[in-house]
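---------- Forwarded message ----------

FYI, see the Stp1/IreP family PP2C-type Ser/Thr phosphatase record below. Original note from H. follows.
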Amino acid sequence: MKLICAGITDVGCSREHNEDDFYLSDGEEALCIVADGMGGHRSGEVASAMAIKAIVEYYRETMPQVVNGYQGESVGEGDEERDLDELRIHEALQMANRAVFQAAESDEAYEGMGTTIVSAYFTEGGVYLAHIGDSRGYLYREGSLEQVTHDHSLANEYVRMGILAKEDVEFFPYKNVITRACGLTDEVEIDVNFHTMQPGDMFVFCSDGLSDMVPDRELVQLLDDTEDLEVLCQRLVDRANENGGSDNITIILARVVEDEN
């Protein structure tokens, strides 16, 4: 199997500048990252760019076979056992968290800055997803769309606790309040999960500028619309802006196809 990817970022209709950022690997590492910065003019865009830079540098400076002195297929024992690729993506996001936090601590101009992150590392066996905040990952398979990340948001916590109905989230006045972000503390809890993949699968990674503006039913219709990923990225941005464009919009599409070689 091989991967075909495209990405785009757009300021939206309401913001004066873009605090989002994204990364698509142009090397051997099949790495996709979306970051949605926060903290106001300059500091939000600094946080998202800095976090991505830290993740990419970590991947470039480490080898898949050797991480933190461990070699082999897994490390740890029992419930603590971790696949090396899982350990690697987890440590990459911790490095990003520390980089943003230390920059905010050392420069008053960046005080309080942070970013959400959703990062994907593709291997032969599947994809490892790691995220902090409410930037999302979706899996689109055979006409069905599934969110494969869990929003770290107040609204999602209220839904989990039964305080808020899922269908009422879009009307919840604090739906954009997040409960975790990269760079706000010296350590952060990171969710990591693994998904197998098959030819025809498409993964969607996005900031909330897309997910807040384009409901899942519209997203499915658009994902069925064309095979050209760059065209599809632009259509998704256009739809988000048509629906209000209240935030910056960033999208990565990654399609799994048969390797003909």
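H. also flagged this: Residues 67 and 187 are 19 Å apart (CA to CA).
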